[in-house]
Write a structure and sequence with these properties.
This protein is mainly alpha-helical and about 325 residues long. It contains 17 helices and 2 strands. The chain has a two-stranded antiparallel sheet. A hairpin with a 5-residue loop joins strand 1 and strand 2.
């Protein structure tokens, strides 16, 4: 019995020093990975695995480096070892494995991985988003939409989820919902390459179905509008606002003024329609924009989300620091 106790005592420092060396090697590997020296990072992680071949930390990091260098098959192999251990690296392992499978063209397998991950981590918005993206690329837009709504409900400020949801609604010819998603995305991400594309899409939606035939005739086409749709009235209002921009009474107004007036109009109509309606469109988007109109900061908002459009918008933002500051303070609150 004494010999066993002595052996255990002797093993404690050996284990401690081994774990300490593993942590140091992982730190070195991460630095190499961050410098995009993936092969060198993998060599370091291999040394760490010789000290502990079951370490989830090491398997995750080496798998992540394989993923980054494009060896997705080996990335999956190491992530499977992490998933088997079911420890604190499990969630990230699911994400990496799912992404690797998707890139390899094994989308159905990726969906299975993500769905299992979502069951285990229902409060993780990134897992919901990754599942939605894979489903969307497979053409399963309705199911993707459900997961995106879950992702946004968990984290409304995740811009990419809002953007993809807006794209799906546009492809479904759901004009008003798409417009709301684009507005929210541009609030979160107003000044990137994606912002330029989102803003162009937003402007397209705002003018959709309206054509000026001549000085006296403006045509409005509503397409196949469903009168039972919650947004049918808003869709009609959106077209009317677009048509009014082409009328004589609005000649001479700047693009910025017309955008502000149209935005205010549609937000007010939606807020009036809200009543007892439920769902992300009403609880998040419409509620937020109704509050924005009431706050008096809509002008600053309109310039903020259109800042990639031209120098006019960026100049206004620079020259109106007080208004922008008040808008930012309102957002924080």
């Amino acid at each position: 019995m004494k010999r066993i106790i002595i052996l255990l005592i002797l093993l404690i420092p050996i284990t401690f020093f081994a774990q300490s060396e593993i942590k140091q090697l992982v730190k070195e590997g991460i630095e190499l990975h961050d410098a995009k020296k993936y092969d060198e990072a993998i060599e370091v992680y291999e040394r760490a695995l010789k000290l502990d071949k079951k370490s989830s930390l090491v398997h995750y990091e080496i798998g992540f480096s394989y993923f980054a260098k494009g060896d997705h098959k080996k990335a999956v192999k190491h992530m499977d070892k992490v998933i088997k251990n079911e420890d604190k690296h499990l969630k990230d392992a699911y994400v990496t494995k799912g992404s690797a499978l998707d890139i390899m063209g094994k989308s159905k397998e990726a969906v299975k991985v993500y769905k299992k991950a979502v069951q285990e981590f229902p409060d993780n918005y990134l897992l919901q988003y990754n599942l939605a993206l894979t489903l969307y690329n497979m053409g399963e837009k309705a199911e993707a939409e459900m997961n995106l709504i879950d992702a946004i409900s968990l984290n409304p400020s995740h811009g990419t989820s809002n953007y993809l949801l807006a794209i799906i609604k546009k492809e479904q010819n759901r004009r008003v919902e798409s417009l709301l998603g684009l507005h929210f995305f541009l609030l979160i991400e107003p000044n990137t390459t994606r912002s330029e594309s989102a803003l162009a899409m937003l402007m397209e939606l705002m003018g959709e179905g309206v054509e000026k035939k001549d000085d006296k005739n403006i045509s409005i086409s509503l397409g196949d509008m469903d009168v039972n749709d919650d947004f049918s009235s808003a869709n009609l209002m959106l077209s009317m606002l677009a048509a009014s921009k082409l009328s004589e009474e609005n000649e001479g107004k700047s693009e910025q003024t017309l955008f502000y007036e149209s935005t205010e109009g549609i937000f007010k109509v939606l807020d009036e329609m809200k009543k007892d309606k439920k769902g992300i469109w009403w609880d998040l988007y419409v509620t937020f924009y109704g509050s924005l109109v009431e706050s008096g900061h809509l002008e600053a908002y309109c310039y903020f989300i259109t800042q990639t459009k031209s120098e006019v918008e960026t100049k206004w933002i620079k020259e109106n620091e007080e208004k922008m500051g008040a808008f930012y303070d309102w957002l924080k609150g």
